[in-house]
Structures are given as C-alpha cells and as structure tokens.
Amino acid sequence: MSPNLILVIVVGVMVGSGVILVLERSLTRILVGFVLIGNGLNVLFLVASGPAGRAPLIDVGEGPMSDPLPQAMALTAIVITLGVTAFGLALAYRAYQLTGTDDVQDDLEDDFIRRRAERDEVSTTFDEALPDEALPDEDYLDNDDVGVAADAETSVGEERRR
C-alpha cells in the first residue's frame, strides 16, 4: 500500500518551512522553525509506519498488528522537541532581556575573520612569527637530555627526603 500523498506533501512543506525559518536571524523564528521540523518529522514517522492495525500488545482481534517502533520514536521526538523548545524559549527571553531584541548578533571574531579573508591576509604561524635564530636546535630535545633531566629531578627529590 502506498503512503498517503497528502501527508508526504505536508511533511515536505513543514520541514522545508522549518529549515527556512531556522536560517533566519530572529530567535523566535528559529524556534518556530525548529518546532515545524520536529512536527514534520513526527508526521513522517506516522507515514512511514504504514497502515493502522490492531494494538501491538493485546492479542485480541483479527488483522495485522501495527508496528510499535514508529509510535515510540514519535513519542520520544515529541518529548525531546518539547525540552529543546523550552530551553530555546528561555534562551530567547534572556537574550531579549539583555539586548532588547531577539536577533542573533554577529560575533566579533567572525567579523574579524571575514574582514581578514576579504583582504586575503594569511595568519602568521609559529614558524613565521619567530626568527630562525630563536628556534631551538634539533639536538636540544635529545632523548639523552630528557633522561638526564629526569635523573636530576629524581636525585633532587631524594636529597629533599633526607
């Protein structure tokens, strides 16, 4: 049996609208978009579960038994969506209290990186920042030197105990 075409279109519209709203700058629109995506996926679970049947736990009646897994997944998704929505509402309310608007503001570091990319500047690395004379020699970190340093620390620790 094919899935109901109207429900498939509803899923597409809800998830598509939710994605468009999540890409907005207003926290309330982002929250509404998240709720639309969650509800669209719940409808998708119900469409994917197939036709209705008898109760999965009671062995009474005739006909095929319905699959309990999509129902459990939809119930879990509802609970998770409710929790994340409550957290998002608290976040949006706190942002509104602090800034007077619920728009997401640009991060200063992101703006700095964008301006630097527009000028096509390359950031300096450790090797470029230090002159060659300031870099340590290759034999500076010899294994023998590390062993001598470890032995010196051990002998100092033994002297302190005495």
TrEMBL record:
Keywords: Cell membrane, Membrane, Transmembrane, Transmembrane helix
NCBIfam families in the record: PRK07946.1 (NF005929)
TM segment ranges: 6-23, 30-52, 72-93
Transmembrane helix among keywords: yes
Signal peptide (residue range): none
The protein, known as: Na(+)/H(+) antiporter subunit C
Acidic residues bias: start-end ranges: 129-145
Main location: membrane
Family membership noted in the UniProt record: Belongs to the CPA3 antiporters (TC 2.A.63) subunit C family.
Annotated organism of origin: Aeromicrobium phragmitis
Compartments it resides in: Cell membrane
